[in-house]
Amino acid sequence: MVFEKRVSRRVPIVARVEAHGGAGPHIILAQNISVGGMLVRTADTLPEGDTIQLRFMLPGIDREIRATAVVQHVTPGEFMGVRFTELGPEDAAAIREFVEKA
Q1: Distance between alpha carbon 11 and the CA centroid of its chain, in Å?
Q2: What's the pLDDT score for residue 58?
Q3: pLDDT tens digit string along 42-99?
Q4: C-alpha angle with apex 31: 30 to 36, nearest 5 degrees?
Q5: Rounded Cα distance, 8 and 48, in Å
Q6: Burial class (CB in 10 A: 0-12, 13-18, 19+), 68
Q7: Dihedral sign (CA 94, 59, 65, 37)
Q8: Nearest of 9, 8, 26 to residue 17 by alpha carbon
Q9: How far apart are alpha carbons 32 and 81 in whole angstroms?
Q10: Residue 65 burial by Cβ neighbours in a 10 Å radius (0-12, 13-18, 19+)
Q11: Closest C-alpha among 67, 59, 60, 52 to residue 32
Q12: What would the pLDDT profile of 9-30 be if each residue is shown by its tens digit?
């Protein structure tokens, strides 16, 4: 029997994300997002447990989102699932609105 670990609804997104962590800044591509985190595509995956700073724009929302996140799971050289650990109230509200409208 398989149990779903996620508690937040995830929706598809195509967004360029600037990530600072590990060996320096990386440009990665968001694949999906929830109020709790996002899945990103990158060849430069980081180890699970690493903390990264993220900056990105949500489609249709005219403000930059800034978040601190921790790498939760990795498919080496392909994907990282990150969980938001620090997110301002306005940024959290913008993500919540985006997810609810999708």
Answers
A1: 11
A2: 94
A3: 998 999 999 999 999 999 888 899 999 999 999 999 999 999 999 999 999 999 999 9
A4: 75
A5: 20
A6: middle
A7: positive
A8: 26
A9: 10
A10: buried
A11: 59
A12: 899 999 999 999 877 788 899 9
- State both tokens at 94: 């913008």
Tokens 């700073």 belong to 53
User: pTM value?
Assistant: 0.88
What tokens appear for 6 in the block?
């996620």
Contact 80, 40 (CB under 8 A): yes
Show the 3-state SS of 49-92.
CCEEEEEEECCCCCCEEEEEEEEEEEECCCEEEEEEEEECHHHH
- Using left for φ > 0, alpha for ψ between -120 and 50, and beta otherwise, residue 86 falls in beta
Q: Give the gyration radius of the chain's Cα atoms.
A: 13
Is residue 102 a contact partner of residue 11, using CB atoms and an 8 Å limit? yes
Helix/strand/coil for 95? helix
What secondary structure letter does DSSP report for 2?
-
